[in-house]
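User: Is it possible to get a 3D structure for a protein together with its bound compound? The compound here is coproporphyrinogen III. I've pasted both below.
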Amino acid sequence: MPSNPFLNSFTHTNQRTPIWLMRQAGRYMADYRRIREKYSLLEMVKTPELACEITLQPIKTFGLDAAIIFADILPLLEGMGFRLEFLKGEGPKIDNPIRSMTDIEKLRFTPATECLAFTLNTIRLVRRELDKYNIPLIGFSGAPFTLASYAIEGGSSKDQSLTKQFIHTHPEHWHMFMEKLSLMIADYLLAQAQAGAQVLQIFDSWAGALSPFDYEIYVMPHLQKIIEITKKSEVPLIYFSTGTSGFLDIIKKLNVNAFSIDWRIDIKNAWQTLGTNKTLQGNLDPNLLFAPWSELKKHTEQIINQVCSIHPDKKGFIFNLGHGILQKTPEDQVKRLVDFVKSN
Ligand code: CP3
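Assistant: Yes, that's possible. Here is the predicted structure of the complex:
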């Protein structure tokens, strides 16, 4: 593939700031809703032709610098024995969540080539299509803590309270659970790289629920193991987390190529803590896409100015949101943002 600003950002050789948006394919797009009317989320994810088409929708509409495979972090849990559903208006539900130590002992390992073959097939399909656009494909997985929180809470949770109670009541079983999850995750990430993913992102959306101490003891060793295994693929790795600005000095120890941060910290501060030799991704508040253009532009410029105060040529920076794009986001605002960042 000829040189691309997103891939070049991992070697700090990008000539301009690349941009892609977390959850860039989804309900805010009319094209997506047209398909969603006919199929459930899991049907779309598990049908490679549909998932391929949806992956490409935001690429065709907005001209982003990278595609992210249309999938979800939760189907991996099915391969371990969890029953997953997405209920209308309620989000994900797991009807056999972890309630006892024996539930953890019963969990199984299934290779990604068996239980997540649909996403690996989507990756192969998308890669063929992307040759036309000269942009790379990002594969991803949930991080073990974030996945464990769904498996223990039985769905989305505001405070990960049951998960934290489990950690502190059954630390040994917690570690056993994290080890089982980590083997599934590492195998899935490697399989995605083999299928053609050119960058891999690990989503640790709820890591910020933890204290720095708990993160370091109960989460970090498992992430390090995943990273160590996944490094064999030589594909750049991005670690995404939110709410973690209070312990970036710990997160910094993860041996990944790039960190993705949210808006709760200014980017200059974050970059200095994480190491300015690393690639940094972030960190616009997705709510700004609802603001008048003048306000959205001001905040976008502010991020870019801060980046310039670290690296005046903006090398090693990837523009993104601090978390996923919101459901009612106006598409014309997305287009304006993408055009503006690309011209900067
Ligand atoms: O970025 C992309 O375009 C790829 C698609 C993608 C989805 N999920 C599709 C999806 C990605 C990268 C994810 C990751 C994901 N899934 C995360 C980590 C990122 C984050 O946002 O924190 C998490 C925590 C999940 C779990 C999940 N999936 C939840 C909590 C929900 C329900 C909430 C919601 O947004 O509706 C989902 C459903 C989901 N995954 C949708 C999409 C497009 C909405 C499905 C619909 O059309 O009803």
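The mean pLDDT is 97. The chain has 16 helices and nine strands.
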